[in-house]
Specification:
The protein has helices spanning about 30-40, 40-50, 70-80, 105-120, 130-140, 155-160, 170-175, 180, 225-240, and strands at about 1-5, 15. Helix content is about 35%, strand content about 0%. By secondary structure, it is mainly alpha-helical.
Length: about 270
Amino acid sequence: CLSLQGSICSEFADYKAYIPAGSTISSITSFDNYVQQSYGPGFKDLVTRSSNGGYKCSGWNGENLRYMHSVVCAYHVGLGFAYGATGSSTPCNFNVPRPFPLCASSFDAFSSSWDAIMNDHALCPAGVSVDSLNYKSLLMTAKALASADAACLAGVLEENNDCGFQTAGEAAAYCASPSNANGNACCAQFLPSPALATTNSVAMVTPPMASIEASTGHVALPSTSNPAITTQISSKITTGPSDGDVSIVPLPSTQGSVANLESPSKRRLQM
């Protein structure tokens, strides 16, 4: 049970992530490296490559996926509601607020943006891969613990500031569409002030894209090869542990490099 105080999942500082015995993740630093690769350059490599179980989305430039960082954090917190330390039937996140603060609507935004990318033939000419569907389903299991409260948290800080995107440029482009901006509070900062608006049109200036520095950590994404695992984990997250069972959780591994991550379809589950 790894406390998330001081992690890049800072909005979940009151919670713990479940790290099964035998995992090479043993500190906040190694956990943060894993999380960063799960939504950063390591994930982009997985999505774009056409071999070794990649999603074959060669046209994807890494943009327009919303709340990925937040959902990855939430997924590991969710496991902490289902599982505990080895030999214990008490879950890591015992006697802490439930549901956790992340909005259920953020999961919906993540899901919609994922589907828009994977179903875009220009980005993914080979069509939607089974592995991509399985991985998304795995992450979405944590929605069972999300909040529907009006004061819920949209996302971790940097995503909360940019409507769930990784950069302000993506958020500005998204908010330039009236259908996206209408009623969406996160778009307020990207819209021109009333004094600058004209009666005929609204000018929109998209700020330059922020550069993304690649991590040098050696981490890999969790296995998603078995759809049944998603159903089992979803049930666990919803109902809690039974007999201390910790055998079905897909684990990250530090084998492989950022440039050559093993596909979820190729990586075995660590038990």
